[in-house]
Amino acid sequence: MKKTTLILFISLLLTPIYVIAQKLNIEDEIKLRVGVMEMIVERKKTNENVFKDANYKMLNFLSFSENQKKVLDTLFSKSWSKRLELYNNIKGADDKKNITEFINYLVKNETIFRKVLTKEQLTIYNDELKKNEGKSDDARKIIVRAMYFTDDQYNEFIKNK
């Protein structure tokens, strides 16, 4: 009986730590996404077409049908203007309202993107993104991680909306 009580007590102590760790992970992911957007904006060479082409290059591990490309062309092109607008509304690191709007827009785009993919493509997509998880000095991995969501990240952001 004492072991059970001890295990219960330890699990109750660790649960808040686990929840905090998950929240910190989300906070890190938000900072990464805002930071990469800042880097893209600072280049001043990005426009709708450049953004669309960059998305296709980063997703070169997927083969898209012509019908998918039509939808994605529109999604990638139109999302740049709205991302830029929402990013420009962010006044600082403590501007939770505008950061939340920005992140919610990214999640909305991710939802649309995922609906375009077949089940097989979604599996490949998630497997490739998982390879980019964790800390890295590789610029491509950082940008891919900031632009797209693994299943776990996507579900976590949806849950915390």
UniProtKB/TrEMBL annotation:
It comes from Flavobacterium cerinum. It comes from the Bacteria. This is TerB family tellurite resistance protein.
